[in-house]
Design a protein that fits this description.
Blueprint: E1 4-7, H1 14-24, H2 36-45, E2 54-58, E3 61-71, E4 74-82, H3 91-105, E5 110-116, H4 120-128, E6 132-142, E7 153-154, H5 159-166, H6 179-182, E8 186-190, E9 194-201, E10 204-212, H7 221-229, E11 232-240, H8 244-252, E12 256-257, E13 262-268
Parallel strand pairs: 4-5, 10-11
Antiparallel strand pairs: 1-2, 2-3, 3-4, 5-13, 6-11, 6-12, 6-13, 7-8, 8-9, 9-10
Amino acid sequence: MASVVVRAPTGADSARLADLHNDAFSDYPFPSDLDAAGLQAYMAQTDVGRRTSRVALVDGRLASFCLGAVRGRVASIRGEGTAVAHRRRGFGTLVLRETLAALRAEGAREVGLEVLDTNGAARALYEGHGFAVRRRLVGYELPRTPTTSVQAAVVEAGGGAERLRAWGWPQDAPWQLQPETLRHMTAWQLEDDAVAVGAVRPGGVSVFAVGVRPPRRRHGLARRLLHALGGSVAVPMLIPEAWSAGRGLLESMGASLELFTQFEMARGLL
């Protein structure tokens, strides 16, 4: 009979946890290709803690994981998966249940997560643990635009997120669009009145947020800033469908919806 242990991950697990993460997402529409440093950077960016996360080991080898993060009284599951060879054996349930308990012990009273709309098995797992769909999240791909002489200037570290907060960034933003996450990312500005936050990727950028100083809105600054980033511009599927202003901007620029969407799910932890 196999020996199964569920515990918090340690620093010594870093490389194996990255391998497990890649294995668990290998058959997803968006496979993972993270090394240990990349996974640790993601965990730091999204406030994942070791003591609020859990891994399952089968005969001493990592088989399943659940990454938990806490910000005050609100928590988030920032990744959960099981190695292909160990699926359908209940390990996902084990690590999820133990992670929820750890988040509750840290004082969290609500927890959320995102799941691909096509991942029926994961959604069923979460619904079985009390999660309910809160909203749908969408992504976009912008068409390439002609090279422009206008250049976006890089903003000091954390400056983009602070400007978004000061300019009225939605307080109910998904976890990866909250200022606490965005402050770790690259930010660009235009005329000190428009800012975009995201990450450089091969051939272009992924834009997670765009904001304009309130008195300068409706003057085309957001559009000009996105054009000034150059290359291919993608918006990850993290935009709530109800954010009509942001979606209206992207669609007015000819952006096309990503094929996949996500459900944001949540539950209480009382």
